[in-house]
């Protein structure tokens, strides 16, 4: 049995999700202790519980400790099966993180297509929004020969959630490697601003501020402003670079008392930091690429704009399950190159 300490590194829900994925992929049971022990609310929260239950359903697994507040989890996987799955987090917990827990086994350990419907938060803090999944994450997967189609049925913001995605997953015979060390010159960006349950002028203010920030960096812009329907009011301000190896989206979310301009500034700061790094892979994609590339039969290498604590932690979890070489060339918080060898 693989044993892991949930307080290591980033110390959050990522360790839970990656362990679940790797258990389903390798067939190895695990024991995870000290789950989110350093957080203000330690242990599993509703979205983590949904991840555990989703992984157990997909992998016909047995588990112990998969309830809210649990700081220890035992998980024993069996056969991964394709099918039609529906999960409701029942809070604004991130639907994207549930999907990222179970997508790889459904792609690589089954022979039939699967359909997944997940209800919860589609645009919530500390998680990829659904538009990131559609534009950036799924595009990277396609470069690796993995087909995942993500449909936004309806958006869901904090605190009520209620958003929904429908995902189609096609089984794949193998994972293609990536070699992404250089970034083309970026001179154009898409400004994408949206709001739900708020006046359109809020989204327009976000878009205007983003335009000003990007024009100051000599970037040409294309502007897209939208209004959505959702159970809770919310806003999103985003920047998309489409000249990168895949369309790369950076976003920020509104919250009560946060001016539209501050939302735009948050998205702009992250996008411009990536621009100035001249790296092809954004920091959010970097740690998400580790899991699929760990199962490629060939070595991969990519340069990321920032080596994050999430990336370092995910590399540790992957090495715990697999006899694989993962080398991070660079210091945490700086740009660097990630080398991923094939399984020994």
TrEMBL record:
GO terms for molecular function: ATP binding; RNA-3'-phosphate cyclase activity. InterPro entries: RNA3'-term_phos_cycl_insert, RNA3'_phos_cyclase_dom, RNA3'_phos_cyclase_dom_sf, RNA3'_term_phos_cyc, RNA3'_term_phos_cyc_type_1, RNA3'P_cycl/enolpyr_Trfase_a/b, RPTC_insert. Its main location: cytoplasm. The active site is at residue 310. Residues 9-327 form the RNA 3'-terminal phosphate cyclase domain. The keyword Phosphoprotein does not apply. It catalyses: a 3'-end 3'-phospho-ribonucleotide-RNA + ATP = a 3'-end 2',3'-cyclophospho-ribonucleotide-RNA + AMP + diphosphate. Keywords: ATP-binding, Cytoplasm, Ligase, Nucleotide-binding. It is found in: Cytoplasm. GO terms for cellular component: cytoplasm. NCBIfam families: PRK04204.1-2, RNA_3prim_cycl. Catalyzes the conversion of 3'-phosphate to a 2',3'-cyclic phosphodiester at the end of RNA. The mechanism of action of the enzyme occurs in 3 steps: (A) adenylation of the enzyme by ATP; (B) transfer of adenylate to an RNA-N3'P to produce RNA-N3'PP5'A; (C) and attack of the adjacent 2'-hydroxyl on the 3'-phosphorus in the diester linkage to produce the cyclic end product. The biological role of this enzyme is unknown but it is likely to function in some aspects of cellular RNA processing. Belongs to the RNA 3'-terminal cyclase family. Type 1 subfamily. This is RNA 3'-terminal phosphate cyclase. It comes from Thermogemmata fonticola.
